[in-house]
Amino acid sequence: MIKGLETKVVIVGGGPTGLYCAYLIKRFNPRVLVTVLESKTENQSSCCSGHVSIKGINELMLAPFIDIDKLTKNRVRGAYIFGPNGTLLQVRTKQFQTLVIDRQGFDKEIEKLAKNVGVEILYGHSVVGVDEDYVIVSVSGGDRHINIDYNYLIGADGPNSIVRESFPEKQDNPDFVSTYQLIANGDFKKDMVSMYFGEFANGFFAWVIPESATTAKVGIGTRLGNNPQKAMELFLQVSELKLSNTSFLCSGLIPISKPLDSYIYKNRLLVGDAGYFVKATSGGGLIFGLKSAEIAATTLTDRFKKFKNINNYSKNLKRSISELRLHYKIRKYIYSKTPYEFDELLKNLKDAGIEDFLNNFGNMDYPSKMAPPLVFYPKFLKFYKEILNLIKID
Q1: In CATH terms, is domain 8-48+104-171+258-327 a member of 3.50.4.10?
Q2: Beta strands in the chain, from DSSP E residues, in sequence order
Q3: pTM (global) more than 0.85
Q4: Strand residue runs (E) in 228-330
Q5: What pLDDT digit, counting tens, does each position of 139-151 carry?
Q6: 72-101+174-255 CATH pick, 3.30.9.10, 3.40.50.300, 3.40.50.410, 3.40.640.10
C-alpha cells in the first residue's frame, strides 16, 4: 500500500456522487488525502426529482449508513403512462417500487459521511483548467487562481464536465435535455407517478411525482435548444391537471447520450453525470451515478492496496454500461416514431398485455432483466421486428 499522505485524490464536484466517491475512497484508504472541489459556496442539491428505485438504493454500499426511511417523503407503486394521443398504460404493483426522497437531506447525509472520515471539502473552488498532475482553481471571493496537485483526478462535475473535456477523445453529437420543474398543489394519486408524452415535450416527456396526496413535483424535459419554460406552459395548457400554488423549483441539464467510449484517461476517471451515467429513458441518474462512484472507489483501492491496473475501471463498469446502452437504445427507438406511431405502439402493447408484464417483471434500472420472462408472453412475438429494430440501433 502507498504509505503516508503522499497519494492525493482530487474530486471535482461536490454533489452526492462526488462526495460519496470521496467518502468511500477515504474510508477504504485512510492514509490517502482526498479533496473535493466544489464551485458552489455550500452544498446545494441539483435539479433532481428525488424519485429513485427501492431496489437500486438497497443494492448500494450506502444503504447501511443512511436511514433512507427518514429521508422518504413518499412511496410509489407504479406509473400512469400517457401516449401522445391519449392512450393510457397503467403499471401498478402490490409492493412499493420507488421512493420520493428529500434530495437536500440526502445530499447532506452523504456530506456528513465524507466529513466524518476526514475528506477535505473546499466550497467556492471552481476548476477552470486540468493539467497532467494539477488542476487550476478559481477561488470565489477573489480574482486569484491556485494550482492543486493530484495523483488521481475524478470528474464528478456534472453534464458540462471540465474533466471530461480534458480527455482527448470527445463524444460524437452528445445529447442533452433541458428541464423545468415546479412544485404545486393538487389532487394526486399518492402512490402513482405520471409520464406524459407529446409534442409539448419535444424529444422527452413531462412528469408528475407526488410527494403527498396534495403536493407534487411537476416537470418537463425538452431537447437542448428548446425553451423548457415555454414547454411547461404548453403542457399545462393541454393537460387536464388542476394545479394551484405553483412555484418554480429549478431547471437543469440532463445528459441522455449513449455511453462514452472511455471513462478513464491516464490518471483521470469520470463518475456520475460527468460520465453520462444517466438512464436515457427517464433522465434518472442518481442510482447509476452512485454506483459509478462505488466502482471508481473500489478500482482505486485495488490500485493502492493490490497494485492492480487503474484501467480496470472500464472493465468494472461493464454491467452498468450495458444497461445504460440499452436505456439509450430504447429512447432512440421511441423517439424515432412519430407521435401517431408511438401512440399506436402503446395501444398494441396494451392489447398484448404489457401492463400485466410490467406489473410482474418491470425493472426501471436494469431493463435487460425483463428479457427472459418474455418467453412466457407469446403475444409479444408479433413485435419481433420491432425488437430487432431496437437491437440494431447504434
Answers
A1: no
A2: 8-12, 33-38, 51-53, 72-76, 78-82, 88-92, 98-101, 120-123, 125-130, 134-139, 145-149, 152-155, 176-185, 192-196, 206-210, 215-223, 244-255, 264-265, 268-270
A3: yes
A4: 244-255, 264-265, 268-270
A5: 987 678 999 999 9
A6: 3.30.9.10
